[in-house]
Amino acid sequence: MWRNSATLSFSSKLLSSSSSINHYCFHYASAFSILSPNGVVEPVLSPSYRRFYSSSATPSPSPSSDSVIKLGFLADRSLGFRPLSSKARDAIQLACHYGRCYWELSKARLSMLVVATSGTGYVLGSGNAVDLAGLCWTCAGTMMVAASANSLNQVFEINNDAKMKRTRQRPLPSGRITIPHAVTWASSLGFAGTAMLACKASMLAAGLAASNLILYAFVYTPLKQIHPVNTWVGAVVGAIPPLLGWVAASGQISLNGLILPAALYFWQIPHFMALAYLCRDDYAAGGYRMFSLADASGQRTAAVAFRNCLYLIPLGFIAYDWGVASGWFCVESSLITLAISAAAFSFYRDRTTQKARRMFYASLLYLPVFMSGLLFHRLSDEQRGLADNPDRYIELSSSLQDVSEDDQKKKTRHFTGGPQARPPVAYASIAPFPFLPVPGP
């Protein structure tokens, strides 16, 4: 007992004797402390030093003066780095905040779907070889333009989004970002993406991108509050990106390049009809004039969806007939189109939320399978030419065989020195150094 009290009094004198040491220890305890549930500040230290700073009835031996001085130096050094760490933490939080806002403004997942359709069109229009650098530039420019269009869409619909449950937490209605900031972001992306496509792809591709941005932001967006025809205008907007990719690769618009845009157009109608039926109340609260709002029973909505699913059936045969894909794609396309048509017909017979959601999921599955099959079974220019003229392969192989035989005969006559052998002077034109004399036989 005497030892404990003596140790306690010695430690108290040691802490009170030097003001500098007491100052260091105080800052060290405050720098590494937390609040306990009862409101008492508890230092976050090792168990031995935690017993030193506690006020228990039986205090443990305190550290020596050298240890306290070392703790003081550590505390002073940590205080020197504290402002730098707090600024770095604030910068990271600010970057995460604006990054999340930009991600939501751009509707990144929808924009990436647009990029996927544009990239597919680029590969289909590339012919024999795909330019990877051109593909990357085209996808990057398409991503910027799509993000700009989606951001402008939210700027114009800020009041409508604030009234809907699924959109009221977007950056603009929730007040996480200002309207001038969003407009600056959208304008910068739009100009940069269009300029990139003009420099790295072609002016025609840049024109398609700019026209699609204007059509989506300044025609389709206000039309959503005016007339139900906005769904068909939005389908045109979705059909342009694969055509943009085809033009960026081939430099022209051709009939073969319209197969994937046609698939995107007819696919979007049942996709949007299912979504509009599922979100009827939300769209009505937001003030949007969707096709499903004027159809209380849902029969016309389901009929439109089913009719456009049937329009997708001939696309596989057209792709095979025009030489874009092989016959296997014709079979696969027919199967997946019949599957989505069956889901649409089921929704037409029984117009319930469950059947509409099933048709919506079927539409989500259809598009990636269709594009993957089109890429996997696509035909290059050489394969396309041989498919159009099967006799060409026989003529080509026979001509190559005749050329190889003639070359072999010429080499034999030259090395045997026959009467029809070419004179050595005939090879002077292909000598490495034409100004040197060619040696005789």
Instruction: Tell me the distance between the termini.
Output: 120 Å
So what's the overall shape?
Answer: globular
How would you characterize the largest beta sheet? 2 strands, antiparallel
Radius of gyration: 37 Å
Task: Briefly note the structural class of the backbone.
Answer: mainly alpha
Protein name: Heme O synthase
GO molecular function: protoheme IX farnesyltransferase activity
Subcellular location: Membrane
InterPro entries: Protohaem_IX_farnesylTrfase, UbiA_prenyltransferase, UbiA_sf
Descriptive account of the structure:
- The chain is mainly alpha-helical.
- The chain has helices spanning 2-17, 19-31, 47-53, 65-105, 108-124, 132-156, 158-161, 179-200, 203-223, 230-250, 259-278, 280-286, 299-310, 314-321, 327-349, 353-376, 381-388, 391-416; strands at residues 33-35, 41-43.
- Strand 1 and strand 2 form a beta hairpin.
- Helix 5 runs antiparallel to helix 6 (132-156).
- The protein is globular, with a radius of gyration of 37 Å.
- The chain crosses the membrane at residues 203-220, 232-253, 259-279, 300-320, 326-348, 360-379.
- InterPro entries: Protohaem_IX_farnesylTrfase (IPR006369), UbiA_prenyltransferase (IPR000537), UbiA_sf (IPR044878).
- Keywords: Heme biosynthesis, Membrane, Transferase, Transmembrane, Transmembrane helix.
